[in-house]
Design brief:
23% strand, two-stranded parallel sheet, single chain, globular, 27% helix, 6 strands, alpha/beta, 4 helices
């Protein structure tokens, strides 16, 4: 029985129109459903736009994150996403568009400052505040969007690709 299970989709886009790897969270799982650990992360080849054989040679992968229902679960999810998907995506865009390799250990030029907007979920804000040093090291400005922005002006909601 999937009592209270929810699926959350996380999308991140760059201003240049690039999409970060898809991040699907299955939350609210019971201890019986996840007896050994509070969360499980799986990388899934082909779980991407144009994946699964739609685009020949597309080697992209997405992420599925299973989470037990527990105190602080959303914060764990945001921390994981920020560390494993968002920051590597931003650094990948820097490498692709500006030939800057963040893994080389040199300082990120100010002109490559990234801005990351969030919707203001309290767990997401808490993650940003608690991990501000990692964002600063990666020259990422974290900003909160205005209230009631969904479906009115968010890029993901207005993009033609997401229209039903």
């Amino acid at each position: 029985m999937m009592n209270g299970m929810r699926v959350k989709l996380t999308f991140t886009f760059s201003a240049a129109g690039m999409c970060a790897p898809l991040f699907v969270t299955v939350s609210g799982l019971s201890e019986d459903e996840m007896p050994n650990k509070p969360f499980l992360h799986m990388r899934v080849p082909g779980l991407c736009i144009g994946g699964g054989g739609v685009t020949v040679g597309n080697n992209g992968e997405g992420h599925v994150f299973f989470m037990r229902k527990m105190e602080g679960a959303d914060r764990i999810r945001y921390e994981y996403y920020q560390r494993e998907v968002l920051i590597p995506f931003i650094n990948g865009v820097r490498k692709e568009l500006d030939d800057f390799d963040a893994s080389a250990g040199t300082s990120i030029p100010k002109k490559l400052t990234a801005v990351s907007w969030c919707d203001g979920d309290l767990a997401q804000i808490a993650t940003i505040v608690s991990d501000i040093e990692r964002l600063t090291e990666n020259l990422i400005l974290a900003l909160k969007q205005n209230a009631a922005r969904s479906a009115a002006e968010q890029a993901a909601d207005l993009a033609r690709v997401l229209k039903m």
